[in-house]
């Protein structure tokens, strides 16, 4: 999850986490949208309008294009090999203040 230089959850980090929760548990996401007043503030009849169904991944692979914005990537390596540093650098974070250093 993306954090600020002080290690706090940033807006981008919150949105990334929200996207992941929506991906893993759509029903809970819809429930939370209801608690936040989604249908009222967006002038929709239901939270279901907040969900976008994408085409099958197989079709994306065949066409060589995608409209997805959530991807599952696994970083594998032994302890101390730099997995966390790689991810932090990928996010553009300063590696000198990484809270995961051991």
Automatic annotation (TrEMBL):
InterPro entries: EF_hand_assoc_1, P-loop_NTPase. It comes from the Eukaryota. It holds the Pfam family EF_assoc_1. Residues 1-65 form the Mitochondrial Rho GTPase 1/3 EF hand associated type-1 domain. This is Mitochondrial Rho GTPase 1/3 EF hand associated type-1 domain-containing protein.
């Amino acid at each position: 999850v993306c954090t600020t230089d002080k290690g706090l959850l940033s807006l981008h980090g919150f949105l990334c986490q929200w996207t992941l929760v929506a991906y893993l548990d759509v029903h809970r996401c819809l429930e939370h949208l209801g608690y936040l007043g989604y249908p009222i503030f967006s002038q929709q009849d239901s939270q279901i309008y907040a969900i976008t169904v994408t085409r099958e991944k197989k079709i994306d692979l065949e066409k060589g294009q995608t409209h997805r914005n959530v991807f599952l990537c696994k970083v594998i390596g032994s302890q101390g090999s730099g997995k966390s540093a790689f991810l932090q650098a990928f996010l553009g974070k300063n590696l000198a203040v990484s809270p995961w250093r051991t």
